[in-house]
């Protein structure tokens, strides 16, 4: 196919960004475009960006430099930046990057086809950043997919946009806007549409999914949504992320324990393990609360996996506070953690603090933290060797093409031998070896 009808999307950042990229791909395919594996063969090149830390922004600028020769050879190619970095930088991106055609904010991508038409037909350079003025931006993607579109076994489905928490280190509220819940009937309809195209597992997304429904009329909330989606015929697994620890109530734990399609996995970002740090971050809970909450979850849901996000080097973090945090993390015993160093974000309260931690100290603390988390993950996984679990076979292993790979209900990866006709099926696998990333296994005969 000629490049004039092909698009290329590269995604940076979180699962919400991945969901947004999937939605933009659907919109482009509905408009008659087809995906390209290479930017060289595309007439639309779109980078969907992240700005939660400085490093993803640096990667985007570097990638734009790599792609510039394509624009020089083919000026008709539409270059676009979408997502959080686009929302944060806005017009500054058009000024800094003269070959950029389109900047799309986090709640404007539903107008992608319109913007591309204006760029192509009218030669306009467009910057669209509105966060609050268009209710149609709440739609995650068109329900009617192109007939040729292939549906993956798993799908990300945003249920709530934005965030009202305003943690002192976080730029998300300013680039994603205030919390806006999507209508429950619309969400259920999308799950039903996904099932019709072969989807077996859906992950409900939001900066804090537990805030779902607070801005809607009536008494609908996240647990009610789980109960509704659990009744959709054909969906086998329901996951959710991210959940703010402050909002975890017994009713949610009971729902996760009793609804058969809701998986045994909680992602609960702790961020820090010392009360002074948690207060300075604006997290709204204490270390003791978090530990007790995890104990309640594990007591009610055997085999549950608890994963988290942890930051090191928040302004003012002392050696003693870091050591106390490590002690708490060891006591909790996380199954996995996304770890990172604090990165000052413009406009946030923490960026203005005078007691910034030296980068060398941050890196040294991060190294120790990773060692602790890896040891915890291996210890937990080793205790599961010999047991059996249900795996949704997702395809060939990325790191070992001679093996298949899939995930347990608690989201842990399993790699095993098997024929490719198992892809898309649920199989029972015996866990034969443990690693910090998951397991090797054997399909039960």
Largest sheet: 6 strands, parallel
CATH H-level name of the largest domain... which superfamily? Methylthiotransferase, N-terminal domain
Q: Tell me the helix content.
A: 25-40%
Class by SSE composition? alpha/beta
Summarize the structure.
The protein is of the alpha/beta class and 445 residues long. The protein is built from 13 helices and 19 strands.
Care to describe what's here?
The chain is α/β, with parallel strands linked by helices and 445 residues long. It folds into 4 domains: 3-133, Methylthiotransferase, N-terminal domain (Rossmann fold, 3-Layer(aba) Sandwich), CATH 3.40.50.12160; 150-263, Transcription Regulator spoIIAA, CATH 3.30.750; 265-383, Transcription Regulator spoIIAA, CATH 3.30.750.200; 388-443, Nucleic acid-binding proteins (OB fold (Dihydrolipoamide Acetyltransferase, E2P), Beta Barrel), CATH 2.40.50.140. 35% of the residues lie in helices and 21% in strands. It is built from 13 helices and 19 strands. The protein has helices spanning 15-30, 54-73, 84-89, 91-96, 112-122, 172-176, 184-196, 222-230, 250-258, 275-281, 287-300, 319-332, 359-382; strands at 6-11, 34-35, 44-49, 78-83, 102-104, 126-128, 154-158, 160-161, 180-181, 201-205, 237-241, 265-267, 305-312, 336-341, 388-396, 404-407, 413-416, 426-435, 438-443. The strands form 5 sheets. Strands 2-1-3-4-5-6 form a 6-stranded parallel beta sheet, with helices on both faces. It has a 5-stranded mixed β-barrel with strand order 15-16-17-19-18. A 3-stranded parallel beta sheet has the order 7-10-11, with helices on both faces. α12 runs parallel beside α13. The longest helix has 24 residues, at 359-382. The chain is globular. The model is unreliable at 140-149 (pLDDT under 50).
């Amino acid at each position: 196919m000629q490049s004039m009808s092909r698009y290329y999307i590269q995604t940076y950042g979180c699962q919400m960004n991945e969901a947004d990229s999937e939605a933009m791909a659907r919109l482009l395919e509905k408009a008659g475009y087809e995906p390209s594996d290479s930017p060289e063969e595309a007439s639309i090149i779109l980078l969907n960006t992240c700005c939660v830390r400085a490093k993803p922004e640096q990667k985007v600028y570097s990638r734009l430099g790599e792609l510039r020769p394509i624009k020089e050879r083919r000026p008709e190619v539409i270059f676009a930046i979408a997502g959080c970095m686009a929302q944060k930088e806005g017009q500054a991106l058009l000024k800094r990057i003269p070959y950029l055609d389109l900047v799309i904010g986090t709640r404007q991508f539903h107008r992608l086809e319109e913007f591309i038409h204006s760029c192509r037909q009218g030669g306009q350079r467009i910057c669209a950043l509105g966060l609050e003025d268009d209710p149609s931006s709440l739609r995650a993607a068109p329900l009617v997919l192109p007939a040729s579109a292939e549906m993956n076994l798993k799908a990300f489905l945003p249920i709530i946009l934005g965030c009202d928490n305003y943690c002192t280190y976080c730029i998300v509220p300013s680039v994603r806007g205030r919390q806006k819940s999507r209508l429950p009937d619309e969400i259920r309809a999308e799950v039903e549409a996904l099932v019709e195209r072969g989807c077996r597992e859906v992950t409900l997304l939001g900066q804090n999914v537990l805030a779902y429904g607070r801005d809607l009329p009536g008494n609908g909330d996240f647990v009610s949504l789980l109960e509704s989606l659990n009744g959709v015929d054909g969906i086998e697994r329901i996951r959710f992320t991210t959940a703010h620890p402050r909002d975890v109530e017994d009713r949610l734990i009971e729902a996760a324990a009793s609804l058969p399609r809701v998986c045994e996995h909680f992602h609960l970002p702790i961020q820090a393990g010392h009360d002074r740090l948690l207060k300075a971050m604006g997290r709204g809970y204490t270390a003791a609360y978090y530990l007790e909450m995890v104990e309640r979850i594990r007591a009610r849901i055997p085999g549950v996996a608890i994963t988290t996000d942890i930051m090191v080097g928040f302004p003012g973090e002392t050696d003693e506070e870091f050591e106390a945090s490590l002690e708490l993390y060891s006591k909790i015993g996380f199954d996995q953690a996304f770890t990172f160093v604090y990165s000052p974000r413009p406009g946030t309260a923490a960026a203005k603090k005078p007691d910034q931690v030296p980068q060398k100290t941050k890196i040294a603390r991060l190294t120790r933290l990773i060692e602790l988390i890896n040891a915890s993950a291996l210890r937990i996984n080793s205790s599961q060797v010999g047991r059996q679990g249900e795996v949704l076979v997702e395809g060939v292993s990325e790191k070992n093409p001679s093996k298949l790979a899939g995930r347990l209900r608690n989201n842990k990866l399993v790699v095993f031998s098997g024929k490719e006709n198992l892809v898309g099926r649920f199989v029972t696998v015996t866990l034969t070896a443990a690693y910090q990333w998951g397991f090797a296994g054997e399909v039960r005969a």
